[in-house]
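Input chain follows. Return structure tokens only.
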Amino acid sequence: MTHSVLYYVAVGLAAVSLLFVVAAVRAVRRRRWLGSFGSAGTGALFLSLAALSGVLGVSTQGYRALTQEEVAATITTVPTGLGAFQAVVEFPNGRDTTLNVLGNQLLVDAHILKWRPLANVLGVHTWYELDRLSGRYTDVEDERSLPRTVHSLQADKPRDLFVLAQRYTVLAFLVDTEYGSATYVEVTRPARFEIRVSTTGLLVREVGTEP
């Protein structure tokens, strides 16, 4: 996975930084001040790049690299009453969860991250992570007045790259754009849906009806 690659990159950059630090120490001992400053500066640069790679590796856990249209989740819906249904969410990694939802439509949204050419060198082009699953009412007045439910679909991680990209301008050199995408479908009977993601955003397709 890409975040694992970033970990290896961070370790490699840190090792290179250590070599330059050692060279700087040797230059100081030999009173080669210019060489020590150059080695120390280069070492600090590689250490900064290692720290950045490490942060990216931690903050991108839960995100998946997108190269074409693919299934982000499969959701089985079963109506449980008027304006209520149960949603069984199955993720490609084998994780699954069962959610009780209020509303007569299924709404799923996601974070989409597109990277600049500098990040593309590492093979990273577009990443995504499902964010929330919620209920939606067909009627606007119902949407305003009736209770709703919202469930998180994010994987647990210490930091979220989507938030970091909005907060720190240094990531602007890597992140081209970040935005949200959503799709919804009406739930009137037991059914099975694929939530798919493409470079243009999310879409939903019915793939079968549950008995």
